[in-house]
Amino acid sequence: MNQIIVPIITIHSICQKIAGYINDDEIIDLINAYITQYHLDITKVEVNDNRHGWQILCDKINDFPDANKLDFIGQIVEADYINNEYDFNFINKFIKKYNYEEVQEKLFEQLAAFTSDAVKVQENFAERLKVDHLEAFQCWKHSIEMLKGKYYSESGEDIRKTFEFLLRDILGNKKSLENQIKAPNRDVMKSEIGKYLKQNKINPQVINFITHLTSAILYISNEKFKHGEPTGLTENDIRFYMNETFLIMEWFLDIEEMR
Length: 259
Description:
- The protein is mostly helical.
- The chain has 13 helices and no strands.
- Helix 11 runs antiparallel to helix 12.
- It is globular, with a radius of gyration of 19 Å.
- It starts with 7 loop residues before the first helix and ends with a helix.
Protein backbone atom coordinates (compact mmCIF):
# COMPACT_ATOMS: atom_id res chain seq x y z
CA MET A 1 0.00 0.00 0.00
CA ASN A 2 1.31 3.48 -0.89
CA GLN A 3 2.22 5.58 2.12
CA ILE A 4 -0.59 7.79 3.37
CA ILE A 5 0.10 10.94 5.35
CA VAL A 6 -2.89 12.41 7.13
CA PRO A 7 -2.85 15.63 9.21
CA ILE A 8 -2.73 14.67 12.87
CA ILE A 9 -4.42 17.90 13.99
CA THR A 10 -7.50 17.04 11.93
CA ILE A 11 -7.37 13.46 13.24
CA HIS A 12 -7.38 14.74 16.82
CA SER A 13 -10.26 17.09 16.08
CA ILE A 14 -12.23 14.14 14.70
CA CYS A 15 -11.36 11.98 17.72
CA GLN A 16 -12.70 14.66 20.03
CA LYS A 17 -15.95 14.71 18.07
CA ILE A 18 -16.19 10.90 18.12
CA ALA A 19 -15.68 10.80 21.90
CA GLY A 20 -18.80 12.92 22.31
CA TYR A 21 -20.92 10.02 21.00
CA ILE A 22 -19.28 7.04 22.70
CA ASN A 23 -18.75 6.46 26.41
CA ASP A 24 -15.23 6.02 27.83
CA ASP A 25 -15.47 2.26 28.49
CA GLU A 26 -16.71 1.57 24.98
CA ILE A 27 -13.91 3.67 23.48
CA ILE A 28 -11.42 1.41 25.27
CA ASP A 29 -13.25 -1.72 24.07
CA LEU A 30 -13.34 -0.51 20.45
CA ILE A 31 -9.66 0.50 20.39
CA ASN A 32 -8.51 -2.79 21.90
CA ALA A 33 -10.75 -4.84 19.60
CA TYR A 34 -9.33 -2.99 16.59
CA ILE A 35 -5.73 -3.56 17.71
CA THR A 36 -6.48 -7.28 18.08
CA GLN A 37 -8.32 -7.59 14.77
CA TYR A 38 -5.54 -6.01 12.72
CA HIS A 39 -2.69 -7.57 14.73
CA LEU A 40 -1.19 -4.13 15.35
CA ASP A 41 2.06 -4.09 17.29
CA ILE A 42 0.62 -1.59 19.75
CA THR A 43 0.04 -1.82 23.48
CA LYS A 44 -3.65 -2.05 24.31
CA VAL A 45 -5.39 0.46 26.57
CA GLU A 46 -5.64 -0.59 30.22
CA VAL A 47 -9.27 -1.25 31.13
CA ASN A 48 -8.89 0.86 34.29
CA ASP A 49 -7.52 3.90 32.41
CA ASN A 50 -9.29 6.82 34.10
CA ARG A 51 -8.60 9.50 31.50
CA HIS A 52 -11.36 11.04 29.44
CA GLY A 53 -12.33 9.07 26.34
CA TRP A 54 -11.10 11.78 23.95
CA GLN A 55 -7.69 11.76 25.65
CA ILE A 56 -7.41 7.98 25.34
CA LEU A 57 -8.53 8.00 21.71
CA CYS A 58 -6.24 10.86 20.65
CA ASP A 59 -3.26 9.33 22.43
CA LYS A 60 -3.72 5.80 21.11
CA ILE A 61 -4.59 6.70 17.53
CA ASN A 62 -1.20 8.45 17.30
CA ASP A 63 0.34 4.96 17.39
CA PHE A 64 -1.78 3.65 14.49
CA PRO A 65 -0.35 3.56 10.97
CA ASP A 66 -2.06 6.28 8.92
CA ALA A 67 -4.05 3.74 6.91
CA ASN A 68 -5.45 2.32 10.15
CA LYS A 69 -6.23 5.80 11.45
CA LEU A 70 -8.48 6.31 8.43
CA ASP A 71 -9.94 2.82 8.66
CA PHE A 72 -10.78 3.11 12.37
CA ILE A 73 -12.50 6.47 11.87
CA GLY A 74 -14.28 5.14 8.78
CA GLN A 75 -15.62 2.15 10.67
CA ILE A 76 -16.96 4.44 13.40
CA VAL A 77 -18.81 6.44 10.73
CA GLU A 78 -20.20 3.28 9.10
CA ALA A 79 -21.38 1.98 12.47
CA ASP A 80 -23.71 5.01 12.78
CA TYR A 81 -22.29 6.33 16.03
CA ILE A 82 -22.25 9.91 14.72
CA ASN A 83 -25.87 11.08 14.64
CA ASN A 84 -25.26 14.80 14.25
CA GLU A 85 -25.43 15.85 10.60
CA TYR A 86 -22.71 18.52 10.85
CA ASP A 87 -20.21 16.22 12.61
CA PHE A 88 -21.04 13.32 10.29
CA ASN A 89 -20.51 15.42 7.17
CA PHE A 90 -17.24 16.86 8.51
CA ILE A 91 -15.77 13.40 9.25
CA ASN A 92 -17.19 11.78 6.12
CA LYS A 93 -15.71 14.50 3.90
CA PHE A 94 -12.31 13.96 5.50
CA ILE A 95 -12.16 10.18 5.03
CA LYS A 96 -13.40 10.44 1.44
CA LYS A 97 -10.63 12.94 0.70
CA TYR A 98 -8.11 10.23 1.57
CA ASN A 99 -9.89 7.46 -0.37
CA TYR A 100 -11.06 5.59 2.73
CA GLU A 101 -12.84 2.85 0.76
CA GLU A 102 -9.70 2.00 -1.19
CA VAL A 103 -7.64 2.02 2.02
CA GLN A 104 -10.13 -0.27 3.75
CA GLU A 105 -10.09 -2.71 0.83
CA LYS A 106 -6.29 -2.94 0.99
CA LEU A 107 -6.37 -3.47 4.76
CA PHE A 108 -8.94 -6.25 4.35
CA GLU A 109 -6.67 -7.92 1.82
CA GLN A 110 -3.81 -7.79 4.31
CA LEU A 111 -6.03 -9.11 7.08
CA ALA A 112 -7.20 -11.99 4.91
CA ALA A 113 -3.60 -13.05 4.27
CA PHE A 114 -2.87 -16.00 6.52
CA THR A 115 0.68 -15.15 7.67
CA SER A 116 2.99 -17.44 9.64
CA ASP A 117 2.23 -15.34 12.73
CA ALA A 118 -1.48 -15.91 12.20
CA VAL A 119 -0.89 -19.66 11.93
CA LYS A 120 0.90 -19.59 15.28
CA VAL A 121 -2.00 -17.69 16.84
CA GLN A 122 -4.49 -20.19 15.44
CA GLU A 123 -2.49 -23.10 16.84
CA ASN A 124 -2.33 -21.44 20.26
CA PHE A 125 -6.09 -20.99 20.11
CA ALA A 126 -6.48 -24.71 19.35
CA GLU A 127 -4.58 -25.51 22.53
CA ARG A 128 -6.97 -23.35 24.53
CA LEU A 129 -9.95 -25.21 23.07
CA LYS A 130 -8.37 -28.57 23.79
CA VAL A 131 -8.56 -28.07 27.56
CA ASP A 132 -12.34 -27.82 28.08
CA HIS A 133 -13.96 -27.83 24.64
CA LEU A 134 -12.98 -31.06 22.91
CA GLU A 135 -15.67 -31.09 20.20
CA ALA A 136 -14.85 -27.51 19.24
CA PHE A 137 -11.14 -28.36 19.25
CA GLN A 138 -11.61 -31.32 16.90
CA CYS A 139 -13.68 -29.25 14.44
CA TRP A 140 -11.16 -26.39 14.51
CA LYS A 141 -8.21 -28.68 13.78
CA HIS A 142 -10.16 -30.38 10.99
CA SER A 143 -11.07 -27.00 9.46
CA ILE A 144 -7.36 -26.12 9.19
CA GLU A 145 -6.60 -29.49 7.58
CA MET A 146 -9.44 -29.00 5.08
CA LEU A 147 -8.23 -25.50 4.27
CA LYS A 148 -4.71 -26.74 3.60
CA GLY A 149 -6.20 -29.31 1.21
CA LYS A 150 -8.28 -26.57 -0.49
CA TYR A 151 -11.55 -28.20 0.57
CA TYR A 152 -13.17 -24.84 1.17
CA SER A 153 -16.74 -25.97 1.75
CA GLU A 154 -15.68 -28.51 4.40
CA SER A 155 -13.35 -25.98 6.04
CA GLY A 156 -16.06 -23.34 6.27
CA GLU A 157 -18.56 -25.80 7.70
CA ASP A 158 -16.08 -26.93 10.35
CA ILE A 159 -15.43 -23.33 11.39
CA ARG A 160 -19.18 -22.85 11.89
CA LYS A 161 -19.39 -26.06 13.91
CA THR A 162 -16.46 -24.97 16.06
CA PHE A 163 -18.28 -21.79 17.02
CA GLU A 164 -21.54 -23.66 17.62
CA PHE A 165 -19.92 -26.29 19.87
CA LEU A 166 -18.02 -23.65 21.82
CA LEU A 167 -21.17 -21.62 22.52
CA ARG A 168 -23.02 -24.76 23.59
CA ASP A 169 -20.32 -25.47 26.16
CA ILE A 170 -20.09 -21.91 27.45
CA LEU A 171 -23.84 -21.20 27.51
CA GLY A 172 -24.71 -24.65 28.85
CA ASN A 173 -27.27 -25.67 26.23
CA LYS A 174 -27.55 -27.70 23.02
CA LYS A 175 -28.91 -24.97 20.77
CA SER A 176 -27.81 -24.25 17.23
CA LEU A 177 -25.80 -21.12 16.45
CA GLU A 178 -28.94 -19.56 14.97
CA ASN A 179 -30.96 -20.16 18.13
CA GLN A 180 -28.22 -18.70 20.32
CA ILE A 181 -28.82 -15.28 18.75
CA LYS A 182 -32.59 -15.45 18.20
CA ALA A 183 -34.54 -13.16 20.50
CA PRO A 184 -38.16 -12.08 21.10
CA ASN A 185 -38.92 -8.83 19.25
CA ARG A 186 -35.30 -8.77 18.10
CA ASP A 187 -34.19 -7.69 21.58
CA VAL A 188 -30.60 -8.98 21.58
CA MET A 189 -30.44 -8.73 25.38
CA LYS A 190 -33.02 -11.54 25.54
CA SER A 191 -31.09 -13.88 23.25
CA GLU A 192 -28.99 -16.66 24.78
CA ILE A 193 -25.81 -14.76 23.91
CA GLY A 194 -27.26 -11.47 25.16
CA LYS A 195 -28.36 -12.89 28.51
CA TYR A 196 -24.98 -14.53 29.08
CA LEU A 197 -23.00 -11.39 28.24
CA LYS A 198 -25.31 -9.20 30.30
CA GLN A 199 -24.77 -11.49 33.31
CA ASN A 200 -21.05 -10.97 32.82
CA LYS A 201 -21.50 -7.18 32.88
CA ILE A 202 -20.53 -6.61 29.25
CA ASN A 203 -21.39 -3.15 27.92
CA PRO A 204 -24.77 -3.24 26.06
CA GLN A 205 -23.24 -1.56 23.00
CA VAL A 206 -20.57 -4.26 22.85
CA ILE A 207 -23.28 -6.93 23.17
CA ASN A 208 -25.06 -5.38 20.17
CA PHE A 209 -21.78 -5.30 18.25
CA ILE A 210 -20.92 -8.95 19.00
CA THR A 211 -24.46 -10.07 18.14
CA HIS A 212 -24.21 -8.22 14.83
CA LEU A 213 -20.92 -9.95 14.00
CA THR A 214 -22.30 -13.34 15.00
CA SER A 215 -25.33 -12.77 12.77
CA ALA A 216 -23.01 -12.01 9.86
CA ILE A 217 -21.05 -15.21 10.51
CA LEU A 218 -24.30 -17.18 10.64
CA TYR A 219 -25.50 -15.66 7.37
CA ILE A 220 -22.25 -16.47 5.55
CA SER A 221 -22.14 -20.01 6.94
CA ASN A 222 -25.75 -20.71 5.93
CA GLU A 223 -25.37 -19.18 2.49
CA LYS A 224 -21.96 -20.55 1.61
CA PHE A 225 -21.28 -23.67 3.67
CA LYS A 226 -24.17 -25.26 5.50
CA HIS A 227 -26.66 -25.49 2.64
CA GLY A 228 -24.54 -25.88 -0.43
CA GLU A 229 -21.25 -25.70 -2.24
CA PRO A 230 -19.57 -22.29 -1.90
CA THR A 231 -19.37 -20.28 -5.11
CA GLY A 232 -17.07 -17.40 -5.87
CA LEU A 233 -14.97 -17.87 -2.74
CA THR A 234 -11.19 -17.84 -2.66
CA GLU A 235 -8.77 -19.22 -0.09
CA ASN A 236 -8.34 -15.67 1.23
CA ASP A 237 -12.11 -15.40 1.69
CA ILE A 238 -12.12 -18.52 3.86
CA ARG A 239 -9.10 -17.37 5.81
CA PHE A 240 -10.76 -14.03 6.49
CA TYR A 241 -13.92 -15.82 7.64
CA MET A 242 -11.80 -18.05 9.87
CA ASN A 243 -9.89 -15.10 11.36
CA GLU A 244 -13.03 -13.13 12.19
CA THR A 245 -14.77 -16.15 13.75
CA PHE A 246 -11.61 -16.99 15.68
CA LEU A 247 -11.46 -13.48 17.22
CA ILE A 248 -15.04 -13.72 18.49
CA MET A 249 -14.51 -17.23 19.88
CA GLU A 250 -11.32 -16.13 21.63
CA TRP A 251 -13.24 -13.24 23.17
CA PHE A 252 -15.85 -15.67 24.56
CA LEU A 253 -13.06 -17.84 25.97
CA ASP A 254 -11.55 -14.80 27.70
CA ILE A 255 -14.91 -14.04 29.35
CA GLU A 256 -15.32 -17.67 30.40
CA GLU A 257 -11.87 -17.73 32.02
CA MET A 258 -12.54 -14.53 33.97
CA ARG A 259 -15.65 -15.98 35.68
